[in-house]
Amino acid sequence: MSRFRLSLPAIPVVLLAILSVQGGAAIAKGLFPVLGAAGTTSLRIGLSALVLLLLVRPNLRELRPAQWRAVVPYGLALGTMNFLFYCALARIPLGLAVTLEFVGPLGLALLGSRRWVDVVWVALAGAGIVLITPPGGHGIDLPGMGLALAAGLCWAVYIVLGRRTAAVLPGPRAVAVGMLFAALPVLPFGIASGSLLHLTPHLLLLAGLLALFSSVLPFSLEIQALQSLSTRTFSILMSLEPVAAALSGWLLLNERLTLSQWVAVGCIVVASAGATLNAPAEKPVISGEE
């Protein structure tokens, strides 16, 4: 299994995962007009599961009951989070969707803080999130905002369950098996929508890139990072998600940043850097023997 593992420090791993996810989100938004949120999510998770199973080749019969109890809810949370986020992304701008989704991990970071300085970093990141919201509410609707907030709740659950899963199952196997269960809450909607009947070779290629950048690479990187980072530190580092989303929208979707959004970028970067530099050293959850 070690042949599939990247030997990188935890913090660069998280940053790489963030960039990958937001690039994938830009690809997903281009698929929505044809495939819709349900069809796009189904293709992303289905192809991701197939690729991971081929690469990792986990032996499901070897899994112990404790590993099943960890990986099944992890996968279900993963699939639900992605489906809700794509439903939100189909209605509201990328930067806003990620900003609202981040309320989940931000709340988790605040609940897990034990030092007053951690509250400062969370507050600074929160200020940046407020500033990054598009002025005037252009392109916003309440259902889309609600879906993004629900995805944020699932994101917080995913962080907690991901750390629990990383403690009992090596990263690559955890993601591969978890992705199988991630498909369960999504595929029925994708099939019912009928959008998968409109697939073309070009759309299938884009879906493959989406699966790579939005699922295979980032979730594998995140499960590795969660082996050595605390839930609190991981959550605050994820404050870079709205920044990456805004920059991705600017570069790939021609969405321009306002002055207040650039200020938000500075706030969130400082908060993330402060959390990283001041995080206490911790014992890794997994020793990395496999």
From TrEMBL:
Q: Where primarily located?
A: membrane
Report the membrane topology from the UniProt record.
Multi-pass membrane protein
InterPro entries per UniProt:
AA-Vitamin_Transporters, EamA_dom, EmrE-like
Give TM regions. 35-56, 68-86, 92-112, 119-136, 142-162, 174-197, 203-221
Q: Where is the EamA domain positioned along the sequence?
A: 143-273
Keyword Transmembrane helix listed? The answer is yes
Stretches assigned to coiled coil: none
On the tree of life, the source organism's domain of life is Bacteria
An annotated GO cellular component: membrane
The record's section on SUPFAM superfamilies has:
Multidrug resistance efflux transporter EmrE
Has UniProt tagged this entry with the keyword Transmembrane?
A: yes
- Keywords for this protein: Membrane, Transmembrane, Transmembrane helix
Annotated localization? Membrane
* Protein's recorded name: DMT family transporter
